[in-house]
Write a structure and sequence with these properties.
Layout (H helix, E strand, L loop, with lengths): L3 H12 L5 E6 L4 E5 L3 H10 L7 E6 L6 H12 L4 E7 L4 E6 L3 H10 L10 H38 L1 H10 L2 H17 L3 H12 L5 H21 L11 H22 L4 H8 L4 E6 L2 E6 L8 E4 L8 E6 L2 E4 L1 H4 L5 E3 L4 E2 L4 E4 L2 E7 L5 H13 L6 H30 L1 H14 L2 H21 L2 E3 L4 H7 L2 E5 H5 L5 E7 L3 H12 L5 H9 L7 E7 L3 E6 L2 E6 L1 H6 L6 H12 L3 E7 L3 E8 L6 H10 L3 E5 L4 H11 L3 E3 L6 H13 L2 E5 L5 H6 L2 E4 L5 H6 L2 E3 L5 H36 L12 H24 L4
Length: 786
């Protein structure tokens, strides 16, 4: 890239990627930025316009990421590295995910220079002991700080609340000795368990990038220095008041809050840990007719495995012998065990309830459904929702604003009431401010909400869908395979020729088709002729071929009309009668003559009507988009309570139908399962692929529903609503807390007879504010989602 036209081509290529936002390329640094797309899409897009771009993706762990201000500074530092395309810092799990045209080393160096050295993250199950060690270390620091602070607090505050204690201390210890002991104990608190605040906070302050640690370091340090000077140099600063207990209590309470926060945050990863726990460590492989217990990692595709009652299926496979019921609730959210017999598929992590199975391994390791679910859940937990953009803009200025407010508070109180009250008020403002709560409000709810969704069989393939699904005003369903079982059967035949001869002709044409209706027609035939040639599928209409010496066409009325075949009046009348009852019509032409009409019926899924009713009750408009005939589609819609039907739509027409719905009603969610649904799933504001969907549909979708039950859509909408509601609660608390209590800490209510918060109370409030946010997010784990 060496000129302005190169920049234009590169930006245009990036902007053209589906879902891409904010594409920007910098000629000076040979770097670019684009959000909403993955690295592979970026590489392909740039390669298409002549730029050989190898995109490196990675995730690093940043232990010193402590507040929302850190998030903005970490992202700025990484984004400034030449070649960086996208960055995403997550405060909840202290990670930075990036995509760059450069190297990971350059990203790490930039983070270290900014004061945030990075580690390589481990797998969730490997990280767990480290997370527990970090939590235990915080607890030990809190206990040590509490042990050192307690004598200072009791002798200082106790003497104020109980005068006899004060008189006894003065007689037996003396003021000078008591204050000197307070100085020593407080210094030990700050230099020992509280040293991390100064070690992390002061460098950021000197770089003009203050964070939460800087506020704590300034507040506790100012209270300590003021008190130390008053005790050691009374001529310089008369000891009108010392605040050693304030400095010590500030550090102790904030350490307590961070320990409680870390302890609670450790529970937010329970969903991923539970998924990983479904994976057994060993598997029983049948080799040379004998069972062998082997490590799971040694199982290869093609191996025959045995599963007994109470065992978990080790890998994805196909049953070769035996019958049993398998509990798949941990993957699909479905409560009832599923019967499995030879030819059926089984998935890793599911539980054998009765009977013994032999199954052939088809997918192992990272290729299993369980592994994919785990990966999708982790990706969703690290997602950034659109609502975070405003939060990030505010928190980027939050700490500097608090420093300014604290300085103004100090100056006003010093001018009006003296130095000691000024120190108290200034320190209280520094300590009570809590950007941590604001930074945690959204990611903590996302982590818990998406984990809860995974346990309900709902995977948010693309994290932003968590918010977009809540915004959807229309939910449009594909019919076949989504609202119906997708397993149609031939129910009626009207023909002018022998039935078996007709069905042989139909089966010959449909032998080359994989469509569910083709399968039903083949199943109804006595046998399938082999003398078939010239097969041609006509998308959205049917198929035709030479069967023996006859040219046979099987499809809808449009197919026959396009061939110039006139409809037989009697057959057409019978077909219309079937259509009125909800049947799908198939017409047959032989040698350009209409010879038969067939009725194919698909069974509606259990619970489909209840799901539609539940979604309608949320105030959304429910629609159905189908390639079936208008009468057949309307019959299904009436049975299910769907008011808006778009029928007779070709696969490419579903996208246009979605656009019309969006123009009329607002954001649209589309629910589908087949390859022909992939364009609509990608074009919708939110695409939901139901259980059993094709790989193409899953890749195109934003949300993957592991169950084919339409009720899974209700669960997805419910968890989206509950998570967004939880985020709003957290944001109201986090912003409301700071907006209300920072002025109180500054003393604006004192002239009106109101309270003046002490630094100790400010520290307690600040410590508990983050704990509140995390605890509120954790309510999503066990709460009934409605």
């Amino acid at each position: 890239m060496h000129c302005g036209s190169c920049v234009g081509r590169a930006e245009a290529a990036l902007a053209a990627i589906p879902g891409a936002r904010d594409a920007h390329v910098n000629l000076a640094t040979h770097s670019g930025q684009v959000t909403g797309v993955d690295a592979d899409a970026v590489s392909d897009a740039l390669a298409n316009v002549g730029f050989d771009a190898e995109v490196t993706q990675g995730t690093v762990h940043i232990p010193d990421m402590s507040c929302a201000s850190c998030v903005a500074r970490i992202e700025d530092a990484a984004q400034a590295v030449p070649g960086t395309l996208s960055v995403h810092a997550n405060l909840a799990n202290k990670t930075l995910t990036f995509a760059t045209l450069g190297t990971e080393t350059a990203i790490r160096d930039a983070l270290t220079a900014a004061g945030y050295p990075a580690d390589a993250p481990l797998a969730p199950h490997a990280n767990e002991p480290l997370e527990q060690d970090a939590t235990d270390a915080l607890f030990r620091r809190f206990l040590l700080a509490a042990a050192l602070t307690l004598p200072v607090f009791l002798t200082e505050m106790g003497s104020h609340m109980f005068p006899p204690l004060h008189h006894w201390l003065m007689r037996t210890v003396g003021t000078d000795t008591l204050q000197l002991s307070h100085l020593i104990l407080t210094a030990l608190v700050l230099a020992g368990p509280g040293a991390g605040f100064f070690r992390r906070g002061l460098p950021g302050l000197f770089r003009a990038r203050p964070d939460m640690d800087a506020l704590v370091a300034l507040g506790a340090g100012a209270a300590f220095l003021f008190s130390a000077v008053a005790v050691l140099a009374p001529r310089v600063l008369p000891p009108t008041g010392v605040y050693f207990e304030a400095a010590a209590v500030i550090v102790t309470l904030i350490l307590m809050g961070r320990w409680l926060e870390a302890r609670a945050k450790g529970r937010t990863g329970d969903a991923v840990r539970a998924l990983l726990g479904l994976r057994p460590d060993t598997a029983t492989v049948v080799r040379d007719g004998k069972d062998a217990l082997v490590p799971l990692d040694t199982v290869q595709p093609g191996d025959i495995l045995r599963a007994r009652p109470g065992d978990r299926v080790a890998v994805d496979g196909t049953v070769t012998d035996g019958q049993t019921h398998v509990d798949e609730a941990m993957l699909t959210g479905e409560p009832l065990p599923i019967h499995k017999a030879p030819g059926d598929t089984v998935h890793a992590g599911t539980l054998i309830t009765t009977g013994t199975l032999l199954y052939r391994a088809t997918h192992v390791g990272h290729d299993t459904v369980l592994a994919r679910i785990t990966d999708l859940t982790q990706q969703a937990q690290s997602a950034r929702l659109p609502v975070e953009a405003l939060v990030n803009r505010i928190t980027a200025w939050f700490v500097p604003a608090v420093l300014v407010i604290s300085a103004l508070t100090f100056a006003v109180w010093w001018a009006l009431a003296g130095l000691a009250p000024a120190v108290v008020s200034g320190v209280s403002v520094l300590i009570i401010a809590c950007p941590c709560a604001m930074g945690l409000a959204t990611p903590m709810s996302i982590m818990v909400g998406t984990g809860r969704a995974a346990r309900m069989g709902v995977l948010f393939h693309k994290g932003a869908a968590l918010q977009r699904l809540q915004d959807a005003q229309v939910i449009a369903f594909d019919k076949t395979g989504t609202l119906t079982l997708g397993q149609p059967s031939l129910t009626d035949v009207a023909t002018h020729m022998p039935r078996d001869a007709l069905l042989r002709l139909v089966a010959g044409v449909e032998a080359g088709s994989e469509h569910p209706i083709a399968t039903a027609l083949r199943a109804a035939a006595p046998d399938v002729p082999l003398d078939v040639s010239g097969f041609e599928a006509v998308p959205g209409e049917g198929a035709r071929a030479m069967v023996g010496q006859q040219h046979v066409a099987v499809g809808n009325a449009t197919l026959l009309a396009g061939m110039g075949v006139a409809m037989d009046d009697d057959l057409a009348a019978q077909a219309q009668a079937w259509a009125a009852q909800g049947a799908t019509l198939v017409h047959v032409a032989a040698d350009e003559r209409h010879v038969a009409s067939l009725a194919v019926t698909d069974t509606m899924r259990d619970g489909a009507a209840d799901a539609v009713a539940a979604l309608t009750a949320t105030g959304r408009r429910i629609a159905m988009i189908s390639g079936d005939t208008e009468p057949a589609a309307r019959h299904v819609a009436e049975c299910l309570g769907i008011g808006e039907v778009i029928a007779g739509v070709r696969p490419d027409g579903k996208v246009a139908a979605l656009e019309r719905l969006r123009a009329s009603h607002g954001p649209v969610a589309f629910v589908g399962d087949g390859i022909n649904d992939a364009p609509a799933l990608a074009a919708a504001d939110v695409g939901l692929a139901v259980g059993g969907a094709s790989d193409v549909a899953i890749e195109a979708a934003d949300v993957v529903l592991l169950s084919p039950d339409p009720g899974a859509v209700v669960r997805a909408v419910a968890i989206s609503r509950a998570t967004l509601r939880n985020i709003r609660q957290n944001l109201v608390w986090a912003f409301g807390y700071n907006i209300l209590l920072i002025p109180v800490a500054a003393g604006v209510l004192v002239p009106m007879g109101g309270p003046q918060l002490s630094p100790q109370l400010a520290a307690l409030a600040m410590a508990l504010s983050s704990v509140f946010v995390v605890s509120n997010a954790l309510r999503l784990r066990g709460k009934e989602v409605t």
